[in-house]
Amino acid sequence: MRILVFGAGALGSFVGGMLSQNNDVVLIGRREHVETIEENGLTITGKTEIVVHPKAKESVDGNEKPDWVLVATKSYDTEDAMRTLSPLFKDAVFLSLQNGLGNEDIISRYAPRVLGGTTSHGITKVGAGRIIHAGLGRTVLGNYQGAEDSVSIIADALNGSGIETEITSDIRREIWKKAIVNAGINPLTAITGQKNGFILENSDLEMTLEAICEEAVQVANAHGIDISVEESIEQTKEVARLTADNKSSMLQDIEGGKRTEIDSICGAIMTLGMEKEIPTPVNSSLMAIIKGIEASQE
After folding, report:
1. What is the C-alpha separation between 144 and 96, in angstroms, rounded?
2. Which domains does the chain carry?
3. Helix 171-192 with 266-275: angle, nearest 10 deg
4. Is 187 exposed, middle or buried (0-12, 13-18, 19+ CB in 10 A)?
5. Active site residue 178
6. Which of 22, 40, 77, 255 is the most buried (most CB within 10 A)?
7. What's the CA gap between 237 and 112, in Å, rounded?
8. DSSP assigned state of 293
C-alpha cells in the first residue's frame, strides 16, 4: 500500500517506520529528522529493535498518490494539516492516531473518508532519525465517516507490520477512553518531570489520576459515551504500568520548550463539561498549571 504519514514525530515515525517494512511509506517531518532518515534510515530501539528505510521529506509536493494518509500532527495543527493535504481528499482514506478530542471532527469537515484510531504505545523521539519504543500498547481502529470498507484493510496492514490492531464498531467511545488516559497521565508527568510509572509510585498522584478519570467519565456520559469510572481508572493505570519507562508526549513537549496538547485533552474535557454544566475542577486546574508552565518558557 502507498501510505503518507503527515507529522513524523515520535508516534508518526514509529507507525510509519513499522509500516515501511511491507509498504511504500513517505514520512513528512522536520528537516534534520527526515534528512537523517533518508541517509541512515530510522532507528527504533527498546521494545522493538530495527532499522527501517521509509522515504522521508519535509513537505507534500503533489507527487504523492497515497491509498491512505496517517495524520500524526499535534492536535493544534490538525486544521492547518488538512488545508495542506487538500489535494489528497478525493482519493485517500484519512486516519488519525492523535491525542485528544476533536481531531476526527476537524478531519471529517475536509475529507469524505475518515477512520478514527487510538494507540497507547509509548514512543519517545531521542534525536534525528532515532526513536525509543518504550512501552507496548493497544491500537484500535474504527470507521468515523464514510470509510467502512477500509477499516479491515488498514488494520491488516498494521497487524502485518507488527503493530497489533483491533477493530471497533464504536470508535468514538475508544477516542474518549484514550483522551481520559491522556488526561490522567500526561499533565501529571509533565508537571512532575517524571516518567509514566512514577504516578503509580506516589499515592497522592494516584489519587489525583483517579479524580481526573472520575470527572472526565461524568462528562463523557453526559455526551452519550458509555464508559464507567472503574473501567476508566483501570485502563489509565494499566497504560501507566505498561509504559512505565516512557516519557509522555506532554513531558517531552515541556522539556523541549514546545506547546503541549493540553487544550484538546483536559481543556476539551473542561469545555465539554461546561456545555453540560458539569464541574471539572481537577482537569481545569491541570489545564491552568500546564498553561502556566508553557507561558514561563516563552
Report:
1. 10
2. 2-169 (3.40.50.720), 173-296 (1.10.1040.10)
3. 120
4. buried
5. yes
6. 77
7. 36
8. H
Q: Could you read off the pLDDT of 68-110 as tens digits, one per residue?
A: 999 999 999 999 999 999 999 999 999 999 999 999 999 999 9
Which residues are CB-neighbours of 50 under 8 A, at least 6 positions away?
17, 21, 43, 44
Assign 21 to helix, strand or coil.
coil
d(CA 180, CA 187): 11
Q: At how many degrees (to 10) do helices 203-222 and 229-242 cross?
A: 130
Give the number of other CB atoms < 10 A from CB of residue 117: 27
Longest dimension (CA), the chain: 54
Q: Alpha helix locations (H) across 137-242?
A: 151-160, 171-192, 198-201, 203-222, 229-242
**Alpha-carbon span 95 to 115, nearest angstrom:** 5
Per-residue pLDDT band for 44 (boundaries 50, 70, 90) equals: very high
User: Could you give the 3-state DSSP secondary structure of residue 71?
Assistant: strand
pTM above 0.85, yes or no: yes
CB atoms within 10 A of CB 57: 18
SS3 label, residue 34: helix
Question: Which residue type does 158 have?
Answer: L
Q: Are 72 and 123 in contact (CB under 8 A)?
A: no
Which position among 47, 178, 195, 237 bears the catalytic label?
A: 178
Q: State the pLDDT at residue 2.
A: 97
Cell numbers 507488527 label which residue?
A: 162
Band of residue 61 on the pLDDT scale cut at 50, 70, 90: confident
